[in-house]
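Question: Hello, beginner here. Any chance you could explain the protein record under this note? Any guidance would be welcome.
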Amino acid sequence: MSAPARGPDPLRLRLDGPSLPFELAAVRSRMAAWAEGLGAPAETVDDLVLATHEALANVADHAYPGSDGGAMAFLDAELTDGEIVVVVRDQGRWRPPAADAGWRGRGLLIIRGLSDDTDIRHDDTGTTVEMRWRLPSTPEGRARHGRRGGA
C-alpha cells in the first residue's frame, strides 16, 4: 500500500516592503503554482491568488508610508486539516480606511468576498490578515466545488 499523496511544503516568503509592488507578479505566480500543487480547484486557486495579491497590495500601499527601507511583509501559506490558510502580515502602522476612498479602498471587501473566512488583526506590532479556503475532501467534491454557497 502506498503512502497518501502529500502536497507541497508550506510557502513562506519574506518580502522587502519598498520593492513589494515590483514583486507582486512573481508572488502571484508562486502562489498559483503552490495551490495547484495541493490539487486545489482552479476557481479556488484564482480566489486565493487574487486575495493574497490584495492583502500584499494593501501592505505596499498603506502599511509603510514614507518608509525608510526597513519595511517588510511576510507571507505564510499552508494546508492544515483540509484548509488552505494564507497569512499576510506586516510591521507597519494601521491606518483606518478613508471615509470616501473614491475608486480605491476595496481590498478588504474583495479579500472577504473571495475567502471562506477572513480574520484581520492590527496592533502596535503591525497588521495580520489571515484568509482560509476549505478544500473538498474527495475528487468528486473537488469537481463540484464552487464559490461560497455554490454547488
